[in-house]
Amino acid sequence: MKYFLQRIGFYVFTAWAAITLNFFIPRMVPGDPVQSLIAKYKGQLSTDAMQSLYILFGLDQHKSMWAEYVDYWKQIFHGDLGLSFTFFPAPVSQVISQALPWTLLLVGITTIISFLLGTSLGVVAGWRRGSWTDGLLPVTTFFSSVPYFWLGIIAIYLLAGPDSFFPSSGGFDSGLVPAWDQYFIPSAIQHSLLPALTILISSVSGWILSMRNMMVTVASEDYITVAHAKGLSERRVALSYAARNALLPNVSGFALSLGFIVGGTLLVEIVFSYPGLGFTLLQALGARDYPLMQGIFLIITIAVLVANLLADIAYLLLDPRTRKDG
Amino acid sequence: MTIPTSSIEQVIPGQGAMAQPSAKPAKAKRQRFLFVRNTKAATGLVVLGVYVLLAIIGPWIAPYDPSGRSNDLVQGPSAAHWFGTTHLGQDIFSQILVGTRSVMYVGFLAGLIATTLSVLIGVTAGYLGGKTDDSLSALTNVILVIPAIPLMIIITSVLNNASDTLIAVVIGLTSWSWNARVLRAQTLSLRRRDFVEASRASGETTWRIVIFELLPNLTAVIASGLVGTVIYAVLSEITLAFIGITSNDGWNWGTILFWAQGQQALGQHAWWWFVPAGLAIACLGTALSLINFGIDEFVSPRLRSAGKTKLKTAAGHTVRMRIGFTPVLENSAAPHTHARVISTPVMREAK
């Protein structure tokens, strides 16, 4: 329990650090770009919206830094992230809440499948070292060196097309309206297959490699020898003794590399014009829509922190040592 | 965005070759080229050498001006244009050659910045311990958990048309944390070793202990961290250029992909537009990963691919050799011809 509270404390601290970073980044440079955007929309912006943008970007000259910081926090707690210029006059929070489910489902499901698949392949590769499985290593090295988005481009080129099963862009057929019905869901799944495959191929190799190396290290531990000496079946030794212990570093590695993976998947969304956060971020970049960019960064960071917390809970269940009181 | 390929931190303290202080001077001469004799490392170094050479001479040997327009619009590869042309008739082969310099420059500068920071922070945290360790570790973990690519995107977009050097600084400042963590763990396991205790007892200053006792023993970890960060920095720079938020006047492989994507290269089936840049990235990344594998295997021999492990015995049985197991052959005419592995442990690796 103490371990768990420590972790929660750490995540709260990180969230604070990320929000503070978000507060300072726009203040490091003169606020001209935002100022000009606000000037451009002057007639259409309400006083409230102006005030909220002033607080977010520190354009109010009369306040001290500290007062600005307090205001900024108040505003974050109200869920007010300013107005988006790209999707004017929608507030940033609304734009994000439309894009977030797409990213969460695509990245979440793919990452979990990739982790499970890569780890199991790694167990096999590590346990049967010296067999054909060693041939996997050069291939996985190559795939982990390729940028996610380039693999996406190649996948579109090779597999998608006007008369192919795989659509090359979008999240659902253009004629459909998002809803939980029998028309929309199959279409959404069909559109997500290729992006998911791309993310899967580029992220799975890392798990194979780290799990293999951990298995090789664990395989010559004394307790493995003892398990063999007891006459346990090969399968039981491999799975319950070696893999169970080798898994722990991989689970903590999972938490730590989520940040990397999310960065890569944002780019895959851009290539596939998938209606998630990555694509929204690209649109925001094109229009220099700073409130939207900052909002997306904040949401991604918080999502990664929550995922880390979940990985910690998994670790807690896997490793009895962390459950000890004291 | 890739998972760091190094696994050095997974070597159990006290078991890898790291555990031994450096070899005796007499042996040092013979072992000098051991690292290069590893085929993986040698291949990686050769390929990396080619890239470095291209980064230096690329702009001079490029057959065309990378931005110069011509009348051959979106042409496939030919004798005149080896990698074809773009929508403005620019020569893609020249763009790749000229772009190599920017990619290598940003990759290595960012790698150096990140490695320096990680050594400073990781070794300090690991060696000093206590409150310093707590605060530096917290800092490391915070930077580690915050997603780096979105953070880089935000910073570069605020910076407005950032130059290569500025991009390298941003990448370096956001990507040191993984190595700092690894270095801290290694330093922790080193600092209670006898030779460190001995130099502390003989009254050496902290600086001297860190520089002359600890750092030489961390060389492999630092080198592998540097290589990993260079891969990461190259990928990050290309990503930033691909979404079009870095300065537009220079060429790098990401810029090529940016134009290919923006001008619908896919719709025009212009595969030559995006394939060469991607392969260039992949080969560079693979070369660097191979060097890293070489370092890993050099440090922890157990990770080497075991080579040929199946042997045929005189009686015609096939035996698979494995570390930690003694194959025992059965002479009975059992229906299975394969040797059964019985769990008698011999052949433990020398520690």
TrEMBL record, chain A:
Origin superkingdom: Bacteria
InterPro entries reported in the protein's UniProt record: MetI-like, MetI-like_sf
Keyword annotations of the record: Membrane, Transmembrane, Transmembrane helix, Transport
Sequence intervals crossing the membrane: 7-25, 99-124, 136-160, 188-209, 254-275, 295-318
A GO cellular component annotation in the UniProt record: plasma membrane
Name of this chain's protein: Peptide ABC transporter permease
Similarity field: Belongs to the binding-protein-dependent transport system permease family.
PANTHER family referenced in this protein's UniProt entry, alphabetically: OLIGOPEPTIDE TRANSPORT SYSTEM PERMEASE PROTEIN
Keyword Transmembrane helix attached: yes
UniProt xrefs under Gene3D superfamilies: MetI-like
Species in which this protein is naturally found: Paractinoplanes toevensis
GO biological process, one term: transmembrane transport
Domain ABC transmembrane type-1: 100-311
SUPFAM superfamilies: MetI-like
Location in the cell: Cell membrane; Membrane
Membrane topology listed for this record: Multi-pass membrane protein
From TrEMBL, chain B:
Transmembrane segments: 41-62, 103-127, 139-159, 165-183, 218-245, 271-295
Domain ABC transmembrane type-1 intervals: 104-292
Major location category of this protein: membrane
Cell compartment(s), UniProt: Cell membrane
A Pfam family annotated for this UniProt entry: OppC_N
Protein name: Peptide ABC transporter permease
Family: Belongs to the binding-protein-dependent transport system permease family.
InterPro entries in the record: BP-dependent_transpt_permease, MetI-like, MetI-like_sf, OppC_N
Protein's membrane topology: Multi-pass membrane protein
Family matches, as Gene3D superfamilies: MetI-like
Superkingdom in the source lineage: Bacteria
Keywords for the protein's UniProt record, in alphabetical order: Cell membrane, Membrane, Transmembrane, Transmembrane helix, Transport
One Gene Ontology cellular component annotation held by this UniProt entry: plasma membrane
GO molecular-function term, one example from the UniProt record: dipeptide transmembrane transporter activity
